[in-house]
Amino acid sequence: MLSFNQYVRARSLEEAYTLCQKKRNVVLGGMLWLKMQRRSVGTVIDLCNLGLDQIEETPEAYRIGAMVSLRELETHEGLNAFTQGAMAEALKDIVGVQFRNVATLGGSIYGRFGFSDVLTLFLALDAKVELYHAGILSVEEFLNYPRTERDILAHVLIPKEGRRTVYLSMRNTATDFPVLTCALSGQGNQYRCVVGARPKPAKVYADEKGNLAEGINPESAAAFAKDVAARAEFGSNLRGSAAYREKLCEVLVRRAALALAEESEWR
Question: How much is the mean pLDDT over the chain?
Fold first, then answer.
């Protein structure tokens, strides 16, 4: 059970950042993972009055506030059209609708959870985070951002680069945490393959051997999938063994590549 001494509804990002510098203070977000922790904190910081619950579209990018719920992302027509349905596919199995109505994008990205469907997809989209103090970093860079740096995540930016995107996952049961996640995006003949729930945090794998350089077909997709599965590191937990995840990875990456080829043909 979470207990705290003080609740503060921040009036500015500066105030939130200043409060966050004390180690015993935490940002609330949607307060879904926090409430399950057994810990006592000093001050909980609520960002709900800072206008971070908006999805803005510009010619260059989608700018998404950290307090936007996962459900809003899942049902956003523009984002789903832009990602060819990958946004809804990545979010639809996260616990349940009631959970997704409360869970925030900021909490999902800032937590850098190993099981995160959200992190897997946003890495494939080459998204960026906008931190109040450190500025703009790619999500890939943010994965290695020191957790000791207590910054405030304000927005997440998805650049409009004309990427084609596919998202797949394997779950033992619907709404459970994934056994493995996979997202693949393509821009021209450049590809970003992301494998998550390894059960380590998601990681990007490029087409280093150029298996897809001449186009995607059953043979090139299989070769690419085999290469990614061989390079990825897997661990074991209650949902699956490392060996099982390696086999799943090869299957999901191959399917994602073939699905991406179908999208290209359709276009």
Answer: 93
Distance from CA of residue 100 to its chain's centroid? 14
DSSP string covering the chain, please? -EEEEEEEE-SSHHHHHHHHTSTT-EE-TT-SSGGGS-EEEEEEEE-TTSS---EEE-SSEEEEETT-BHHHHHT-HHHHHHTTTHHHHHHTTSS-HHHHHH-BHHHHHHHT-TT-HHHHHHHHTT-EEEETTTEEEEHHHHTTS-TTS---EEEEEEE----EEEEEEE-SSTTSPPSEEEEEEEETTEEEEEEE-SSSPPEEEE-TT-TTTT---HHHHHHHHHHHHHHS----BTTB-HHHHHHHHHHHHHHHHHHHHHHHHH-
Condensed to tens digits (0 to 9), the pLDDT of residues 136-158 reads: 999 999 999 998 889 999 999 99
Closest CA to 14 of 152, 157, 155, 156: 152
127: left (phi over 0), alpha (psi -120 to 50) or beta: beta
pLDDT of residue 132: 96
pLDDT of residue 44: 86
Please give the Cα distance from 183 to 176 (Å, whole number).
Answer: 18
Q: How many CB atoms within 10 Å of residue 100?
A: 21
Between helices 242-266 and 218-231, what is the axis angle to 10°? 140
Instruction: Write the CB contacts of 214 (distance below 8 Å, at least 6 apart in sequence).
Output: 220
Task: Look up the pTM and report it.
Answer: 0.94
Kindly tell me the sign of the dihedral angle through the C-alpha atoms of 79, 160, 84, 103: negative
